[in-house]
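[step 3/7] fold_predict: job queued, chain A
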Amino acid sequence: MSARLEVITGPMFSGKSATLIQLLENATYARKQILVIKPALDKRSVETEITTRKIIRGRSTVINKFPANNVNTLREFRKALKERYFHVLGIEEAQFLGPWIITAVKELLSERAHDDLRIIVAGLDMTANMEPFGSMPQLLAMADEVIKLHAVCFKCGKDARYTQKLGGTSDRIQVGDLGLYEARCRQCHTPNVASSS
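[step 4/7] structure written:
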């Protein structure tokens, strides 16, 4: 029994949130205490939940959800950790959390090295410009297990490893969903077509 870090990654629409929620639900069935955090920047769903969406008739529809705490800073993260004991820590959209998340995860794994602690992180590994995204490369390097998911290319139907930004601003971070982003294979992915802000 020892602490472990699992990272779920892949492009948008690959099922990262669905996989995270399924693992959290399984831990619930095993009577494990669970704490979930997500960045406050992610405004696509209710502040107190992580959600998984499915594209139904061309629309993104919420099909599952799990309670979560919003955090922006290391201080808020540590406060959430102190509020209750947990066996499983879920971290959603980790690419939006600052570099502090690396330190926080390292500290937690060290402090509870001999516990039955399981940290499950979900996040995009690359930006729409096919560059490493935020703290995800370091978290992937630290992971005991990596689950690398693929989506289906919205253009040709092949396996998709990349996120294509369709418009919006040229900002590196622009939270969005269907309509602003699509999953694409390498052949169908094009350089960022977003307009300048």
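[step 5/7] annotate
The chain has a mean pLDDT of 87.
The two ends are 50 Å apart (CA to CA).
exit 0
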